[in-house]
Design goal:
CATH class of the largest domain: Mainly Alpha
Membrane topology: Multi-pass membrane protein
Structural class: mainly alpha
InterPro entries: MFS, MFS_dom, MFS_trans_sf
Number of helices: 22
GO molecular function, one term: transmembrane transporter activity
Helix content: over 70%
Mean pLDDT: 78
CATH superfamily of the largest domain: MFS general substrate transporter like domains
Protein name: Major facilitator transporter
Largest sheet: none
Low-confidence stretches: 1-73
GO cellular component, one term: plasma membrane
Number of strands: 0
Number of domains: 3
Length: about 550
C-alpha cells in the first residue's frame, strides 16, 4: 500500500453520515489536537440521537474554518502525487489555453473559412458549452471509473481534437474539433482538484490547491499572447502542433503516477438530469451572447436597428427561458433522486454558497480583465497586436508564481488574511483604473494588471479551498464540480459583458483608429473597470461575512 493510499482515511473519513461533520472539521481545521479530544468528540457524536451535544457538534461543523497549522515531517507530498498533478494540470492548462488562443485567430479564420463574426464566435461559445455540460458529470465519473482511466480518455480526446483542428478545412470540422477539446478540458478540470483533495497531506492542501488553480487562473490570460506570437511568425495550425507533444508527455506521466484513492462501484447515470444541466447552461450562455448582440445592434446609429436587433432579442429570451427552466427541472429531479448527478444539499450551507458565488464572480472579472488588456491598447492606444498580447505576460507570470504562495499563506495563517488582503489589493487596482481614465498608457495598464494578478493569485485558490472545507467529506466532489462548472460559465459571461460595454461606446464613434473612436473605447473600458470594481467589492463583503469566525 502506498503512502497516498494510507493517507486516505484521514482525508475522506468514514462514510457513515454521522461522522462527516467530525471528519470534515478534522480534515481542514489544522489546529493541533490530542487523540483523546478527537476520540471523545467522535464518541459523543456516535452515541447522540436528539441530544443537545449532537446539535452543537453539527452547528460547529457547518461553520468549520481553516486555521493555521505547522507542517510535520509526515506531511510529505509524494512523487506520485506531484506527477499526478503535473500530468492532469498540463492537460487542463492546454485545454484552457487553446480556448483563448482561438480569440486571437478569429480575424484570420473568418477569411479562411468565409464566415462572419457571429458564426466564428461559436468556436469559443461551443467549447464553453461542452465544458460546462461535461463538468457536472465529474461526480459520477469519480465514483464510477478509476481516475487513471478518466485521465487517459480525456487526454486522448484532447489529442484527437488537436489533430482534427490541424486538418480542418471547413467551419463544421473546426467546430467538431473544438467540441472534442471541450470534452477533454471538462474531464480534466475537476479531476485535478479531486486528486488534490483526496490524496494531499492535510498541511499541504492550500499550497497544492493554489498550484492547481494556477491552471485555471493563468491559462486564459496566456492564450492571447501565445496565439499572437505564434501566428505572427508561423501558420496558425502550428499552435496545435506544438501542444500535442505536451499532451503526450502528460499522458505518459499520468499513466505512471496516477493512483486510485478510493473504490469504484457500478451505478446508474442520471441521464435526464445531465440533459437538464446541459440545456440549462447552454440556454444561459446563448441568452447572454445573444443579449449582448441585441444591445450592440440597438446601440448602432441606423434606421433599421430595431429590426436588426429583433432576432438576437428573441434568441436571448428563448435562451434565458431554456436555461432557467432546465436548471429548475434539474433541481427538482435531483431532489427526488436517491443518487443525483449533483447533491444540491451543499448549497444550504451559507458559507459554502458565499465562497461559490465569490469564486464565480472573481473568475468573471479576471477573464474580462484578460480580454481588455490586449484589446484596449490596440483600439485606443495604437499598439500592435503582438505588443498588446505581450502586455498581459508579466501579470500572467506573477499569477503563476504566486498561486502556490497564496496556498502556503492559507496553510500558515488560515483563510481570512490572504483572501481579504488580496481582495483589497485587487479592488484598489480597479479603482485606480477608473480614476486614471484617458491618462492610461500601455505600460501603466500592464503594471496595474501585475498588481491585480498578484492579489488574485493569493486569494482565488484559497476561496475554493476554504469553501470546500465547509461541507462534508463525501460531498466535496459535488462542491468541486459546482466550482468548476460555474467558473466556466462566469468566464463566458465576463468576456461577453466587458466586450459589449466597449462595443456600445464604440457605436457611432467614427471609423476605427479615429480620435473619437479611441476616446469612446477608453470610456467603455473605464465603465468596465467600474463594473468590475463593484463586483470585487461585493466579493469582499461576501468573504468578510463568510470568514468572520476565521480571525
Amino acid at each position: 500500500m502506498t503512502q497516498a493510499a494510507r493517507a486516505i482515511p484521514a482525508i475522506t473519513g468514514n462514510h457513515d453520515s454521522r461522522h462527516h461533520g467530525i471528519r470534515n472539521h478534522e480534515r481542514y481545521d489544522h489546529e493541533r489536537r490530542s487523540p483523546n479530544t478527537t476520540t471523545t468528540a467522535a464518541h459523543s457524536t456516535d452515541n447522540a440521537t436528539t441530544s443537545p451535544t449532537r446539535t452543537t457538534v453539527r452547528a460547529t461543523t457547518r461553520t468549520a474554518t481553516i486555521a493555521p497549522t505547522t507542517a510535520t515531517p509526515t506531511d510529505v507530498v509524494s512523487p506520485d502525487l506531484i506527477g499526478s498533478i503535473v500530468s492532469v494540470g498540463s492537460l487542463a492548462f492546454i485545454g484552457i489555453l487553446t480556448e483563448t488562443v482561438m480569440n486571437v485567430l478569429f480575424p484570420q479564420l473568418m477569411g479562411m473559412l468565409h464566415v462572419n463574426a457571429s458564426t466564428i464566435q461559436w468556436l469559443t461559445t461551443g467549447y464553453l458549452l461542452v465544458v460546462s455540460a461535461t463538468v457536472p458529470a465529474s461526480t459520477y465519473l469519480n465514483g464510477r471509473f478509476q481516475q487513471k482511466h478518466t485521465f487517459v480518455t480525456a487526454n486522448l480526446v484532447s489529442i484527437a481534437g488537436c489533430v482534427v483542428t490541424i486538418l480542418a478545412s471547413s467551419f463544421p470540422m473546426l467546430l467538431a474539433a473544438r467540441v472534442l477539446q471541450g470534452v477533454g478540458a471538462g474531464l480534466a478540470l475537476p479531476l485535478m482538484f479531486n486528486i488534490i483533495l483526496e490524496r494531499a497531506p492535510k498541511s499541504r492542501i492550500g499550497s497544492l490547491m493554489g498550484l492547481g488553480t494556477l491552471v485555471v487562473g493563468t491559462a486564459p490570460a496566456l492564450g492571447p499572447a501565445f496565439g499572437g506570437f505564434v501566428s505572427a511568425h508561423a501558420p496558425w495550425q502550428t499552435i496545435f502542433v506544438a501542444v500535442i507533444p505536451v499532451l503526450v508527455v502528460s499522458l505518459v506521466i499520468g499513466v505512471i503516477s496516477i493512483e486510485q484513492p478510493h473504490a469504484t462501484a457500478a451505478r446508474p447515470f442520471a441521464f435526464g438530469q445531465f440533459l437538464c444541466v446541459a440545456a440549462g447552461f447552454t440556454g444561459l450562455i446563448v441568452g447572454i451572447n445573444q443579449g449582448a448582440e441585441a444591445v450592440s445592434a440597438l446601440s448602432r446609429p441606423s434606421g433599421n436597428t430595431p429590426a436588426t436587433a429583433m432576432m438576437p432579442v428573441l434568441l436571448a429570451v428563448a435562451g434565458a427561458v431554456v436555461g432557467i427552466g432546465g436548471l429548475i427541472v434539474f433541481g427538482v429531479l435531483a431532489k427526488r433522486s436517491a443518487d443525483p448527478l449533483l447533491h444540491l444539499g451543499v448549497l444550504r450551507n451559507g458559507g459554502f454558497r458565499a465562497h461559490l458565488f465569490a469564486y464565480m464572480m472573481y473568475q468573471g472579472v479576471t477573464i474580462g480583465f484578460g480580454y481588455l488588456i490586449p484589446n484596449i491598447p490596440q483600439m485606443s492606444m495604437g499598439t500592435s497586436m503582438l505588443t498588446a498580447g505581450l502586455l498581459i505576460l508579466p501579470g500572467s507570470l506573477i499569477g503563476a508564481m504566486f498561486s502556490p504562495v497564496g496556498g502556503m499563506l492559507l496553510d500558515r495563517f488560515g483563510a481570512r488574511r490572504p483572501i481579504l488582503g488580496a481582495t483589497v489589493a485587487a479592488l484598489a487596482v480597479l479603482i485606480g483604473l477608473v480614476v486614471l481614465g484617458d491618462r492610461m498608457t500601455p505600460m501603466l495598464l500592464a503594471g496595474l494588471y501585475v498588481v491585480y494578478m498578484f492579489g488574485f493569485s493569493l486569494c482565488y485558490a484559497n476561496i475554493m479551498t476554504s469553501g470546500l472545507s465547509m461541507i462534508d467529506a463525501d460531498r466535496r466532489a459535488d462542491g468541486n464540480a459546482m466550482f468548476s462548472t460555474l467558473q466556466q460559465f462566469a468566464g463566458a459571461a465576463g468576456t461577453t459583458v466587458v466586450a459589449t460595454i466597449v462595443s456600445v461606446f464604440q457605436s457611432g464613434a467614427g471609423a476605427a483608429g479615429s480620435t473619437t473612436y479611441r476616446l469612446a473605447t477608453q470610456s467603455g473600458a473605464r465603465l468596465d473597470y467600474l463594473v468590475m470594481a463593484v463586483i470585487v467589492a461585493v466579493i469582499g463583503l461576501l468573504m468578510t461575512r463568510a470568514l468572520r469566525k476565521d480571525a
